[in-house]
Amino acid sequence: MATTTDVPGNGAKTSELVTYLRVRNGAKAIAFYQQAFGAQELNRMEMPDGKIAHAELMFGATKVMLADEFPEWQALSPLSLGGAGIGLMLTVEEVDSGYQKLMGMGCTSLMEPATQFYGYREARVIDPFGYEWTLMKQVEVMSDEEMDKRFKALFGG
């Protein structure tokens, strides 16, 4: 079903799965993501009333699309739905300071920064628009066997 394209130079194939966020107050969300994560706005289409019909942001090398919620089109944000069914994971240079920055910007903490058994330092928050974000950085490289051993030691089995 998904289309694939050639990766220039090495013959590999890739597919793109684009995240599309529905938010309440798109302009405010864009400004938040720019300040919080350094997102770069590529384009924006506004309705006559100022609502964002469509915008595209780059989070590093990843494109994320965004629009205001439009209940009349059954396009609802997590705030209208009572939560988001997905989580967004962002690789960062510094988990702890990133977490503190987000907490100062009105995010709700789900998990303070901690190093996980699988070798990543992570923190989790919910942003003011209802989306869950995990900030993550790999701090230890390990084999699948080592990860499985640690998993079983932690959870049994």
CATH class of the largest domain: Alpha Beta
Please tell me the CATH architecture of the largest domain by its name: 2-Layer Sandwich
Integer average pLDDT: 93
- What does the main sheet amount to? 4 strands, mixed
The total of beta strands comes to: 10
The figure for the number of domains is: 2
Q: Biggest sheet, strands in spatial order?
A: 3-6-5-4
> N-to-C SSE series?
EEEHEEEHEHEEEH
In short:
Helices cover 24% and strands 37% of the residues. With 157 residues, it is of the alpha+beta class.
Write the layout of secondary structure elements.
Layout: E1 5-6, E2 13-14, E3 19-23, H1 26-37, E4 40-46, E5 52-59, E6 62-68, H2 78-81, E7 87-91, H3 95-104, E8 108-115, E9 120-126, E10 132-138, H4 144-155
Describe this structure in words.
The protein is α+β, with helices and mostly antiparallel strands. It has 2 domains: 1-82, 2-Layer Sandwich (Signal recognition particle alu RNA binding heterodimer, srp9/1), CATH 3.30.720.120; 84-157, 2,3-Dihydroxybiphenyl 1,2-Dioxygenase, domain 1 (Roll). It is built from 4 helices and 10 strands; from the N terminus they run βββαβββαβαβββα. A 4-stranded mixed β-sheet has the order 3-6-5-4, covered by helices on one side. Strands 7-10-9-8 form a 4-stranded mixed β-sheet, with helices on one face. Strands 1-2 form a two-stranded antiparallel ribbon. The longest helix is centred in the N-terminal third of the chain and has 12 residues, at 26-37. The N and C termini lie far apart (37 Å). The mean pLDDT is 93.
